[in-house]
Amino acid sequence: MKYLRSNWLFMIVAYTILIIGAFAVIYPFFFMVNNSLKTGREIMHSPTALPTEVSFKGYTGVFDELNVLLLLKNSMILAVSITLLNTVLSALAAYAFAKIPFPGRNQIFGFMLMTMMIPGVLFLIPTYVLIYRIGWVGHYQALIIPSAISVFNIFLIRQFMVGIPDELVEAARIDGAGEITIFLRIILPLARPALATVAILTFMGSWNDFFGPLLYLNRPDKWTLQLGLLQFRGTVPGENSEQIWALTTLITVPIVLIYFFIQEQFVKAFANVSLSK
């Protein structure tokens, strides 16, 4: 009886914490969508209340004042290109560090991890000078090439691949399979959760990136959705508030949908990483 009582108490506390956590995650998204359906006056005077009258003025204003389809295309080009390139290169590097023994492997991997402690802002000016001198300012490659590799993504995939039994790789080598064949036919299918996790993290980072496009994309025809949002800034408090909330919702919804469809792979990857050596 005492065990059942303590078990019920644990369940009540656990579900209470989960409900509070779910509310903390869902409420900002609800707040954003709720304000995107209000008029500017309602947003200023009652931002937390439900709209007294649903208004799509913000959405129509966004499409009237901005070429949203062009901005969406530019954002997709950058996000998809960076995601594909970063995921593939990070997976290749992770496989080498996890399954291919070579001299200095651990030392090189340790040095790469040390670079994660260096603030990225220290490379800001040298990187811009380099990209300016090779003539990439104003072009997509200024953002795609520097983002093609990520030490954190290599670390994440490598930790997952370490958990894949070495016996599978050794058996394939004995059968005459090359490293590329092993990588494509054995490692990649088993590492799918880690790859999905890296893909969504990279896509989110690229899709939400504001400073990079602001710094390098100085041509309006190359602007992204994030730079489009900047166009609605005003000197008067509350000016263009409908458009700001509407465009913010349009930017956020694709990320939410992507995460919703691959959240299972996301959880599996981090669960495996935590258990790997």
Would you kindly provide a written description of the structure presented here, covering whatever features stand out?
This protein has 14 helices and no strands. The protein starts with a helix and ends with a helix. Helix 3 (57-65) crosses helix 14, helix 4 (68-99) runs antiparallel to helix 11 (192-207) and helix 11 runs antiparallel to helix 14 (241-275). It has helices at residues 2-36, 40-45, 57-65, 68-99, 105-115, 124-133, 141-144, 151-162, 166-174, 179-190, 192-207, 211-216, 225-230, 241-275. Helices cover 73% and strands 0% of the residues.
Provide a short characterization of the protein structure.
This protein is an all-alpha fold and 277 residues long. Helix content is 73%, strand content 0%.
Quick tags:
MetI-like fold, 277 residues, mainly alpha
Q: Helices and strands in order, then pairings?
A:
Blueprint lengths: L1 H35 L3 H6 L11 H9 L2 H32 L5 H11 L8 H10 L7 H4 L6 H12 L3 H9 L4 H12 L1 H16 L3 H6 L8 H6 L10 H35 L2
Helix pairs in contact: 1-14, 3-14, 4-8, 4-11, 8-14, 9-10, 11-14
